[in-house]
Amino acid sequence: MSTSSSFADVPRVTTQTLQEMRRAETPIAMLTAYDYTSARILDAAGADVLLVGDSASNVMAGHETTLPITVDQMIYHTQAVVRGVSRALVVSDLPFGSYQGNAKEALHTAIRMMKEAGSHAVKMEGGAGVAQMIRRIVDSGIPVMGHLGLTPQSIHKFGTYKVRATEASEAEELRRDADLLQEAGCFSIVLEKVPAALAADVTEQLEIPTIGIGAGVGCSGQVLVTHDMLGLTTDFNPRFVRRYAHLADTITEAVEAYVTDVRAHQFPNADESY
Length: 274
Fold this sequence. Notes:
- The chain has helices at residues 4-8, 15-24, 36-44, 56-59, 71-83, 103-115, 131-139, 155-158, 168-184, 196-205, 226-229, 247-263; strands at 28-32, 49-52, 89-93, 121-123, 144-149, 188-192, 210-213, 221-224.
- By secondary structure, it is an alpha/beta fold.
- The mean pLDDT is 95.
């Protein structure tokens, strides 16, 4: 396989597919999903990877950060997404507090995500501090996607959502962490809110695909939160989000029209009644 069309025709995207896409320089399209209906639509539209992100804590549950979401809640969302997918690779975030303690705890969480939720892979945030956990999970046969740069689970440590690794020392640390995650067995690494030139350099130094979010076009693929991309969220406007639709406006207009018709006894009409 060496063309975009051939990858679009693969019956099931796997970690090996992503590696082949990287070698063929075919960009990987990844989006978030949290429920069955949206997963079906995104899968049919050609998304290569669906991330059941802990961002569900924000866009589905209304929390300020990703920290409150639990393993059981992530399992619930993943189960729904897996039922809606026939092609895309489904990756589930391991939520905050479910893997940082030790390798045994991390493996237990990852196994639950695979056995109970049906996920195809898991994602973990962090570099050297989680490399041992990643290695243990990968050695058990579970694919792991890494995540470097801005790691939302560490937001209280950072104290800001500003771009990471703008200073030379932090940039060098990110490069080292990327190598460590690759050596630990990660099949891919998300790079979030790091300078585009640095993300391109890291992508070049690695043999595994990188997925960028606010990290420029030089990554092997891109990811956005679907609610942001579709314009369902209106109060979150970082420069890296491109809104391909404005569904908040569309839904508001539809609901207003429905309410108007109900109030005016225009719905249901005779053809819509039994």
